[in-house]
């Protein structure tokens, strides 16, 4: 999930990390990899000054490198320019519906539990799960911390991804993100592709093991996704097609209208609505 809109609560969500206002951030951004290593050192000094321990910084950033694959992906998001029919075909909408219906039956108890807690039915969760990672079958291959650090360094959206980098470091510090984790090109994490700041804000321990593991635990990933939708205005029992009350929550998930419509279509087919 790549949500471009910057949340007003972004800095507040970094619970134990005192982040300075972005305007005061001194590390100089760049539009190629030439200064990346120097930028990382500048960032580490800034972060240490904001209360992050050196050991956590070394653990989180010790092996980051400039990710050209991330920059290519960031500059080339072409699928969102397709028509709805083209997008559904390209992303395998009918396959997601077919497999998703089986997933709903296979994990009926889990989805029932999530709906009782968050008011979100199975369909939208399964649609997002299938659309984002093929139900956990492909989480991405890019080094997560390198991807986020690259985009924090890159001048295009440095402020937005600097917040994400602070969040990713906090996840490493509390043991909820491995420094070697791999995922999608923009640093999205786990089976439903949360950016780090959204893991901090909406992530929940769905399986009760004491950690929020978006990669290995489908219960954590799906419960967190339901919590995200609830946090974006989901109303239990209301519809989620375009024009209905809960479509606004789906819009919060992704900024592309074609993606939003596809999620609503796939979800309604799975739910049988």
From TrEMBL:
Kindly indicate where the leader peptide sits in this chain. none
Q: Name one Pfam family in it.
A: SLT_2
- Stored InterPro entries: Lysozyme-like_dom_sf, MltB-like, SLT_2
| A GO molecular function held by the record | peptidoglycan lytic transglycosylase activity
A single GO BP term for this record reads: peptidoglycan catabolic process
Domain of life of the organism in this record?
Bacteria
* Name of this protein: Lytic transglycosylase
């Amino acid at each position: 999930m790549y949500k471009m809109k910057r949340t007003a609560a972004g800095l507040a969500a970094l619970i134990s990390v005192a982040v300075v206002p972005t305007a005061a951030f001194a590390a100089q951004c760049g539009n190629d990899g030439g200064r990346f290593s120097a930028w990382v050192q500048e960032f580490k000094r800034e972060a240490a000054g904001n209360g992050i321990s050196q050991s956590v910084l070394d653990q989180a950033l010790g092996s980051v490198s400039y990710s050209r694959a991330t920059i290519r992906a960031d500059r080339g998001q072409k699928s969102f320019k397709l028509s709805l029919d083209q997008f559904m075909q390209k992303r395998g909408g009918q396959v997601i519906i077919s497999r998703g219906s089986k997933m709903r039956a296979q994990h009926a108890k889990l989805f029932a539990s999530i709906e009782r807690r968050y008011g979100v039915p199975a369909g939208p969760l399964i649609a997002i799960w299938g659309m984002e990672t093929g139900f956990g079958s492909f989480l991405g291959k890019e080094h997560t911390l390198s991807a986020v650090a690259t985009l924090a360094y890159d001048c295009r959206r440095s402020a937005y991804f600097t917040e994400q980098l602070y969040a990713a470091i906090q996840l490493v510090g509390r043991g909820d993100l491995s420094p070697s984790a791999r995922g999608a090109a923009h640093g999205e994490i786990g089976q439903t592709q949360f950016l780090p700041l959204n893991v901090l804000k909406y992530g929940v321990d769905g399986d009760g093991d004491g950690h929020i593991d978006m990669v290995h635990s489908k219960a954590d990933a799906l419960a967190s996704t339901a919590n995200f939708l609830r946090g974006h205005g989901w109303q239990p029992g209301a519809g989620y097609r375009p024009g209905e009350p809960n479509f606004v929550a789906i819009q919060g998930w992704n900024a592309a209208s074609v993606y939003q419509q596809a999620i609503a279509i796939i979800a309604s087919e799975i739910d049988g609505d």
